Request: fold
Amino acid sequence: MNKPERRPRISREQQKALRFEELTNAAWTLFCEKGYESLTIDEVAEYAGYSRMPIYSLFGDKQNLFFHVWKKISLELMGILLKGCKEGATLNENLRQLAENLLQDQANKDSHGASIFYVVQSIGISRPDIQEKLRDLAEIHLQGIKTMISYSALEPGQTLRSDPEIIALNLIAMINGSSTVEFQTRRHFQDADYLHTLYKAMALN
Reply:
């Protein structure tokens, strides 16, 4: 009789990472169903198959849990926005790719991503520790766009309108602003040509 195959043991750090992932995924799923205010730590823990203690040991409280939910979502979004942007491609081409990626992401999502952004921003107003984490996260996004600008090639006769970091700040502000308007109005009023034209005007002379 063959013995059942033994499952490989995982380290404490791997167990911690797994719990972290499962709890943030559970919090996001329930947030999409119930919103933030009515959702409790106990409900998140039960949905993920844990007691409440791992949430307190990993995150400290509900506010920090939802910061990490937003961090996970926003980093995934940055990966989506920069997908297909290539080192050595022209900045014009990479800005076009950025515009198309943004519209594709918006078309595939509902309003929950924008909702959790506002929830976490509101939490940060009264929580300096979370506000600092939000600044650190914003710096990661800034460096991602700045790096894309820096590794892109310029076409003959083109120059950058400003320092890559300034351009990146302006692009992020434009992306955030347009996303806010679309979230508030529930209307998609942009297309890739429109965004590409705006991005070029902000980045290139």
